[in-house]
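hey m, so remember when u said the tokens were messed up on ur end? i reran from scratch. heres the input so u can diff it against urs
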Amino acid sequence: MRHLWSAAAALALSTASLQAEELDDLLGSFEEETPIKVTVKPIKAEKPSWIELTGDYTLSTAYNYQESAILEGFSRARNTLNLTLDMDFGKKWRSKVEFKTLYDPIYEIRDIATYTETLQ
């Protein structure tokens, strides 16, 4: 039994040694370091724009699934658009204009011309 353990240990060591040699053969060229010359070029700072337009768009929906609801099914398909225009005319004068619009086409889609009367 003792010889069996010695043989297994010797086999494991020789296998590990063989794997280490194969790994060294594969990675041998990666260990050589060659210096890399890096040249840094200064980046010219861009002048910030005097005008900036930002905004967002949102689509909001709602669905009534109760049969006892006054308006069963889709009850909202609201589109919202927000736009902001920032203008910088100099060190002492800035301007900001905001625009917001809402539209809900669910009334035309569901053909509900008298929406407020339906809820009363």
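this time it looks ok to me. The mean pLDDT is 76. if urs says something different then somethings off w ur setup not the seq
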